[in-house]
């Protein structure tokens, strides 16, 4: 099925099995959101679940955050492309050779290739967390450094927090895609996220795509929660 809209909301299907993921997907409209399959659901339900979601009209972001040697990682993104996903990601801290190998490996897929993006600094990490792994720069400076490396490697964009979006749009240009988790409506629990913004703030800051999990999936009425966020960002 061809999607003619470009939904900016990506619902993170962080479920322990395929059944609740499909039950939620059945209530959602592919014209209003894309879906993200991450490590838990993919490890439980695998490529078949991704195919099922795609057969139901959804474009899928396969969020497995590959981080390995160039040969292994580039083979993994090719496997994701064979699966037909819309977006796939790697860790920018895997370095230049790894990211270039991935980008080159996807060239053979032509215009059918997935968007290839790189994770900069996880939105669950604060400056203190970075210091704990030996990085004394601020999260914003580290994100900026890894985004420049990612763009120089020819990837399509990065995963970052919406807090970094204004700086990255200024430094990397409008076409460099910013995919931002850590989205929290005002009334939502922060949970383990550190660098957060509301949906409207994130769009105003320059986010291209909002990744939203628990504020939708754990809401008493997930559909109403999505509709409220969709209304908030569509009005901008
Ligand atoms: O830096 C990152 C990269 C990925 N994520 C993923 O996004 C969702 C966020 O879910 P919430 O429930 O809205 O917190 C989740 O699947 C993460 O694996 C991220 O949060 N931060």
From TrEMBL:
Q: What InterPro entries does this protein map onto? A: Aldolase_TIM, OMPdecase, OMPdecase_AS, OMPdecase_bac, OMPdeCOase_dom, RibuloseP-bd_barrel
What does the record give as the active site?
63, 65, 68
**Annotated Gene Ontology MF terms?**
orotidine-5'-phosphate decarboxylase activity
Keyword Lyase in record = yes
* Residue ranges annotated for the Orotidine 5'-phosphate decarboxylase domain, each copy included: 8-229
Top-level taxon: Bacteria
Q: Record's Pfam families?
A: OMPdecase
Identify the keywords attached in UniProt to this record, alphabetized. Answer: Decarboxylase, Lyase, Pyrimidine biosynthesis
Q: List, in alphabetical order, the GO biological process terms annotated in this UniProt record.
A: 'de novo' pyrimidine nucleobase biosynthetic process; 'de novo' UMP biosynthetic process
Where on this chain does substrate bind? 14, 36, 63-72, 123, 184, 193, 213-214
List the pathway annotation.
Pyrimidine metabolism; UMP biosynthesis via de novo pathway; UMP from orotate: step 2/2
Catalytically driven reaction(s):
orotidine 5'-phosphate + H(+) = UMP + CO2
The EC number on file is: 4.1.1.23
Q: Which SMART domains match?
A: OMPdecase
**What Gene Ontology terms describe where this protein resides (cellular component)?**
cytosol
| Gene3D superfamilies in the record | Aldolase class I
User: Could you tell me which PANTHER family the record lists for this protein?
Assistant: OROTIDINE 5'-PHOSPHATE DECARBOXYLASE (PTHR32119)
Q: How does it assemble?
A: Homodimer.
Note the NCBIfam families from the entry. Answer: PRK00230.1 (NF001273), pyrF (TIGR01740)
Briefly state the protein's biological role: Catalyzes the decarboxylation of orotidine 5'-monophosphate (OMP) to uridine 5'-monophosphate (UMP).
Family recorded in the similarity comment: Belongs to the OMP decarboxylase family. Type 1 subfamily.
Protein's recorded name:
Orotidine 5'-phosphate decarboxylase
Organism for this UniProt entry: Marinobacter profundi
